[in-house]
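Dear U.,

For the methods section draft, I wanted the exact inputs and outputs in one place so we can describe them consistently. I've listed the two proteins in the order they'll appear in the manuscript figures. Please don't edit the token lines directly; just add comments below if something needs changing.

First protein:
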Amino acid sequence: MKDLEQFTIPPGQLAILITEETIKVPTDLLAFISIKASIKFKGLVNVSGFHVDPGFNGKLKFSVYNAGSEGLVLERGQPAFSIWFATFDRPTDLAYNGVHNHQARITPADVMYLQGDVASPAHLLEKIKSLETSFTEKLATSKNETDTKIEAMALKCGLISWGLRLIGALIIVGLAKIIWNLSILEL
């Protein structure tokens, strides 16, 4: 990134930030870190931890989450985190000597951790709206299909009813003819 380059952390997404500064925490100190309030109030949450171990030496990486409803725009070099130190009464024998010592950049492995869908509230809301739209469309289609089937059945029932009336009338006419013919024969 170039100086003053801006980037956006979309709502509901994770990002990894790294400090410009390299720090070295002496073994008789513990460092605490916090996001500045002006950024925190916009929804940025530090999800990577809140302290730096005694003996750590390197740039600090922060895994952050945008819990806000809007994209959060940050700028390279922008003060975003505070750090303060607590003094021990003596140096610790358990100085940090882990894999993050002397880290200087965001690695491809760091970026790999961020891949995939994040079940954020914003992502879930988008999914709910999509399902709602899909359900409404399918319901409307189903209603139209059902209405069409009901109309077709009503037409068939009407034709059957008309046919039955015609058959009934023909039967009555036929019976009347038979009765008429029988009455003529008796005379």
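Second protein (the one for the lower panel):
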Amino acid sequence: MSKKRAVVLLSGGMDSAVAFYLALNRGFNCLCLSFDYGQRHVKETAAAARLAKSAGCRRRTVKLRLSDKGSALMRGNAPLTRGLRKKGGVIPSTYVPARNIVFLSCALSIAEAEGAGDIFIGAHDQDYSGYPDCRPEFFEAFQAAADLGTKAGSEGRPVRLNAPLLGLSKKEIVALGSRLGVPFHLTWSCYKGGDKPCGRCESCLYRAKGFAEAGIEDRALL
């Protein structure tokens, strides 16, 4: 009997890696999907390649050309801010306009074509406190659109959208990943593309906070 199939959005960061390993743990045959959309560097996509290879899963890179305006994460754009943002504050400069709408639409198309019944994404509570396309309401709305706008949905076999990390803190994500055996040393979270994580950008600080609170050593820093 063939295994159930899923498309996993695998950026190469720690959250997407945990979502990936959750899908593997649940018995899915995973196709990992990464995006080259004009981001500042390729460190995360290189990490995604390592993660997929380590787990023996197929991986596909989709090349897109999003606008290089509107986000500090795009090449040649605004400087990155330092420090941790306050929950419920303004949308951070690292927001990429409508990114998850674009990514999930690609994942949905590929999942339907491949006969995969599930999509996994590593969005979580900390993200939707600042990014509108990481809110539970957004994923509910996208699921409704997917059910209505696909052949699979109209035939009563909709592609299910899974965001299993929603509601979890970084501490809880690190602890979960540790239990699942996620090779965190293969992941990359830093917004900058240096030889080593900068340790000062928001992503690095949240990652460090999560590992510290979970009482687990971050092997990526060794």
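Candidate sentences for the figure legend, describing the second protein: The chain has a mean pLDDT of 89. The beta strands are 5-9, 29-36, 58-63, 118-120, 160-162.

Thanks,
Y.
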